[in-house]
Design a protein that fits this description.
This protein is 23% helix and 29% strand. It has 3 helices and 8 strands, in the order βααββββββαβ. By secondary structure, it is α/β, with parallel strands linked by helices. It has a 4-stranded mixed β-sheet, with no helix packed on it. A 4-stranded mixed β-sheet has the order 5-6-7-8, with no helix packed on it.
Length: 149
């Protein structure tokens, strides 16, 4: 199994710089992309939806917040978006593709400016919730792979 994790710094910019051409040569089963910097609805060109993959996005419809995408060769049984952290699901983005005994996820953690104590506190709160979530995940009888920024 081959998985690629890519922090795009803007998926449109990445496409202009040859990301999808490069990707076609990689023979990956999953591509997890963080930092889309646009909404799925802004992606009108077919280049963003390669024929060999099922593409799934979790972003802000109006494009004000960042997002993630996961490209899967095989159709997943279920796609899950968000972690259920009500205060954070629109700041930190998470998408997960579930298969029989495997889950592959893509995470974009919330950003915090180094000198902003309030943002740093929120970021720490997010990671505390994420840590508790991952402890629960360990108890499930399946394999998890989480790619992130």
């Amino acid at each position: 199994m081959r998985i690629i994790s890519f922090s795009a710094d803007g998926i449109k910019n990445a496409a202009e710089n040859g990301f999808f051409d490069w990707l076609n040569e990689q023979d990956a089963d999953f591509i997890c992309v963080q930092d889309l910097q646009c909404s799925e609805y802004d992606l009108q060109d077919n280049i963003f939806f390669p024929a060999d993959y099922n593409a799934y996005f979790f972003d802000d419809v109006d494009g004000k917040a960042n997002g993630v995408a996961i490209y899967c060769r095989k159709m997943p049984k279920v796609i899950m978006t968000g972690l259920g952290f009500t205060d954070f699901d629109m700041e930190g983005r998470y998408i997960q593709a579930d298969y029989e005994n495997l889950s592959v996820a893509c995470l974009l953690a919330p950003h915090a400016e180094p000198n902003d104590a309030a943002q740093q506190a929120r970021k720490n709160d997010f990671y505390a919730l994420l840590g508790a979530h991952l402890q629960k995940v360990r108890n499930k009888r399946r394999e998890f792979i989480i790619c992130g920024n």
